[in-house]
Automatic annotation (TrEMBL):
Stored PROSITE patterns: OMPA_2
One of the record's GO cellular component terms: cell outer membrane
Keyword terms: Cell outer membrane, Membrane
Feature: compositional bias, Polar residues: 95-106
The protein's name in its UniProt record: OmpA family protein
Compartments (UniProt record): Cell outer membrane
């Protein structure tokens, strides 16, 4: 009866709006079921967002299998490489790409992330920017039941995995999700995006045979075993926002199910965001840009070996609707900042990120900086040396200078944004001269891009 009611309501709305297009009733029911809880959610949106969204025109247009979106907030750096390719690898011939964007908004500042308490895991295991895969190909280290391809996005450096077909998508290089892990990725969508097109589901599952079982974690199909699924959709019902849905399954039985609005992700405005997932034992926290959308104390089951991440799509209402994934980073281990700095005398973080080839700190670094600032505030006599490190890409002398500038930027941020007396902080940079891991893989390079805090 509830489904029939939602269907009838949807049909009345279509007639009232004099829509000429005939909508697929099956898809109407599916999307009505997926979002029926949104009608009970407070629809009021922070009006200040409207001002932020003014002037941002995100034109996600797919050429034959090639999109042309631009980024949000005027940001054009979403890769972690220290030096961009000199030959502008991002503007590949044949893509009809341009170097300009339509986004007029200034870059987001650290202060905008004042409530962002996300701190990446201590050890970085995965850093996949898809640069090892050719445009037009499906990534070599992924498995899938649907189709996808590597594309470029206008105004944003790097490669992206475009997903626009029903199916499940498995990054095979992820084989363990311990009690403490963080997963970050950039998420974009085409604009416009139809309300009746599928959400993007991200499942953290316990699979005995991932190569065979991952196909069971599709949309409305999470009945194969144990796992936690978080979905994102850029068009909520009746609001200038997106929405998110969370489900928890234990041995095929759904034990948790909830929906909410997401201010930061919206196809009509912010259609390029950073998603950050943080597991601490049973607790799950999910952030979209600086907005914490989920903080669930019992989202993961104790004594369960979660080992796979599965992205899944249902049906797209329009063939031109797509999602885009970029810059996946998986890190493990809970940072023990105070113990390592105060007791052991040294703390290393890969959670302070910078714009490409620059000393500008990315706003999503706020949580890592705040973590350090808290230790320095609690230990007023503590003095530290801040040391910047880069990977081996680019010129040696340039990297050395860059590492020193980045250390100075960290000092300035701790002083100006967190109130740490600058006299307690000194800086240095080592460039690429002290690699923590070989610079032969994306993960190795990402681990070498780090900031060290050394007790003085």
């Amino acid at each position: 009866m509830r489904i029939l009611t939602c269907l009838c309501f949807s049909l009345v709305c279509f007639v009232g709006r004099a829509q000429v297009r005939i909508y697929d009733p099956a898809r109407t029911v599916e999307r009505s079921v997926e979002y029926r809880a949104n009608s009970r959610v407070n629809q009021s949106i922070d009006r200040g967002l409207d001002k932020v969204e003014e002037g941002i025109i995100n034109a996600f247009k797919k050429k034959p299998a090639k999109p042309q979106p631009q980024n949000q907030n005027g940001q054009t750096s979403t890769t972690d490489a220290d030096n961009p390719p000199a030959d502008d690898t991002y503007a590949r011939p044949g893509n009809n790409r341009t170097s300009s964007t339509n986004a007029s908004e200034a870059p987001t500042t650290l202060k905008a992330y004042s409530r962002f308490d996300f701190v990446p895991g201590e050890k970085l295991l995965v850093a996949d920017d898809f640069m090892q895969d050719a445009v037009g190909d499906f990534p070599a280290k992924w498995n899938a039941t649907g189709s996808g391809e590597i594309v470029t996005i206008e105004g944003v450096p790097g490669h992206w995995l475009a997903l626009g077909k029903k199916g499940q998508y498995l990054p095979e290089y992820i084989s363990n999700l311990p009690d403490n892990f963080t997963l970050q990725f950039d998420l974009a969508c085409s604009n416009p995006f139809n309300f009746y097109s599928t959400s993007l589901h991200t499942a953290f599952a316990a699979l005995k045979n991932p190569a065979k079982e991952f196909a069971g974690w599709g949309v409305f199909k999470h009945n194969i075993g144990t796992g936690t699924s978080v979905s994102m959709h850029p068009m909520a019902a009746g609001a200038k926002s997106g929405s998110s849905h969370v489900e928890v399954f234990e041995n095929g039985e759904r034990t948790m199910n909830n929906d909410l609005l997401v201010n930061q992700f919206w196809a009509g405005g912010r259609n390029l965001v950073k998603v950050s997932v943080w597991r601490q034992r049973q607790r799950l926290r999910v952030y979209v840009n600086e907005e914490k959308i989920w903080d669930l104390p019992r989202a993961f089951l104790p004594d369960v070996a979660y080992n796979s991440v599965v992205f899944a799509l249902g049906d797209m209402h329009r063939p031109e609707d797509s999602y885009y994934l970029g810059n996946l980073r998986l890190a493990v281990g809970a940072p023990d900042t105070r113990n390592k700095l105060v007791t052991e005398g040294k703390f290393v973080t890969r959670g302070i990120l910078f714009n490409v080839g620059q000393a500008t700190i990315k706003p999503e670094s706020f949580g890592a900086l705040k973590d350090i600032a808290n230790v320095l505030t609690e230990n007023a006599d503590l003095r530290v040396l801040i040391v910047g490190h880069t990977d081996a890409d680019g010129d040696d002398a340039t990297n050395l200078t860059l590492s020193k500038r980045r250390a100075e930027a960290v000092k300035a941020a701790l002083s100006s944004d967190f109130g740490i007396n600058a006299s307690r902080l000194t800086t240095d940079g080592k460039g690429e001269t002290q690699p923590a891991t070989p610079n032969t893989t994306p993960e190795g390079k990402a681990n070498n891009r780090r900031v060290e805090f050394i007790k003085q």
